[in-house]
Amino acid sequence: MEKDIKFEEIPAKKVSIKKVQEKLTKFTNDLENAKDFKTAYKAVRDLENYMDKFENNATVISIRYTLNSNDKEIAKLQDQMDEISPLVSNLINKFNKVLVKHPCRKELEEKLTPYYFQMIDNSLKSFDEKIIPELIEINKLSSQYDKVLGSAEIPFRGEIYNISQMGKFTKSKDRGERREASIATDKWFGDHEKEIGDIYGKLVELRDTAAKKLGFKNFIELGYLSLGRVDYDARMVANYRKQIADEVVPVCQKLYKDQAARIGIPFNKMYSYDYNLSFLSGNPTPIGDPDYLVKMGRKMYGDMSKETGDFFQFMMDRHLLDLVARPGKQPGGYMTFLPVQKYPFIFSNFNGTDGDVNVLTHEFGHAFQGYLSRNIKPGDFRSPTLESCEIHSMSMEFFAWPWMDLFFGKDDEKYRYSHLTDAIEFLPYGITIDEFQHWVYEHPHATHEERCAAYQEIERRYTPHKKYDPEMKTMGHGGWWMRQHHIFGTPFYYIDYTLAQVCAFQFLVEMTRNRERAWKKYVKLCKTGGKYPFVTLLAKNHLRNPFEDGNIHKVMVPLRKILKSFDLTKIK
Ligand SMILES: [Zn+2]
Known about the structure:
The chain has 572 residues and is mainly α. It contains 25 helices and 5 strands. A hairpin with a 4-residue loop joins strand 4 (334-338) and strand 5 (343-350).
């Protein structure tokens, strides 16, 4: 049975752009000539089936490429894909233009749902041939940013490290080491500030131009549309940020004071790097090697439920996991989906930190949803927009709590406490990054210095505890945003993590009351896939809408109780 082949048996094929063009043009003509619903609907299905195959191949190529970037054959296929994907978008755009004006639209809308058409209207509003030059330039500049940061060489104590390698020194138990490492990283950003600031300046200019070409006042609305946000807008997000400021910022200030006491540094003398250390005894780390962690993962998902046990076995049997770091493999971690075989795939770089356990919970949460929604039709409804997707993953992190002793041994409670406090403390940072971007695109011609000043003002408002060592001059003048790659590559995306976190908290609260009910609700949410936009999806699944006044308060009251239930004398 073809469906059960293993990942390595799926071929990566070279694509002929001429053939793709012919096919997509044929479907467009078929649709245009269709006189009745049945023929029109067939053209829609033909395009969908063809695009599933195209995307499947593109995904296989991209997975293989990230697994081994030294493979010249795959690198060639990847380059070709990068080149042809804007052309494919353009051809689909042409098909969609015919579809929305089709005489049978009413019947098609009944069959495919109004939301399906809303998504298409949305993509038509946010894309047009005339902005292709800007899009190409934007892609180039954001890869340039990745390259500049990826190739960073930071001298530290006689060795050279990249930015992610510096991470572990900035979290050291030894304050001198934390400080020195943070100053070295800060200095690298200072040395590259002009280069990074220029890249961002150009990106903002290009996005502003593209937005104006499409008839928008500035990039904000276009940015929202590009992320598929059809049932909320910037005004609602601003109201959400206000609720986080009122309800969460004060809780975080209390958490930071507790942390100061725990690690023995006076609160008013703590610098940014001190907040990296949660416990004097060090942050919790996993107790076994990658093989051990995977074995425990299997045990955990087997115990958790029938669905998760089956799912874990499904992934193992078909070789849909590539978890361990090795030379040639790209950094980072992700979950992706192969629409033809209906396989989720998980990529990660296990390196012996608590991040490994996070892959087993967070990325597996994404994959579990992909697995449960794999048969949804049309394929566009398999996966929701990004803020909804993060609910699946972040909630799974909490559903995994009872098994954390398998991964962290006697430090399991320490892990749960820092997981929860990190998640709460993330919210003020997330709204800082979001508000900054709104400011940037409202002031597209601002200078780099003005951007840094704006960032600093917002940062002081939402994270008033955060002070920088006088020697960290770059972060000290509002330069932190240069480290947040989402700002460069995927504008306005960052708030999604915070929105999802607020929903995942609701699952945590519910599972402390009635685990079985919470689990059923979670499985239902995963099975709903992307049939609805964010706000509607929440309503259908009885989750509180974070935009609505009072709802952040309602989420935070029981969460504060859970925080209080930790015995801090036992976790040091
Ligand atoms: Zn995620």
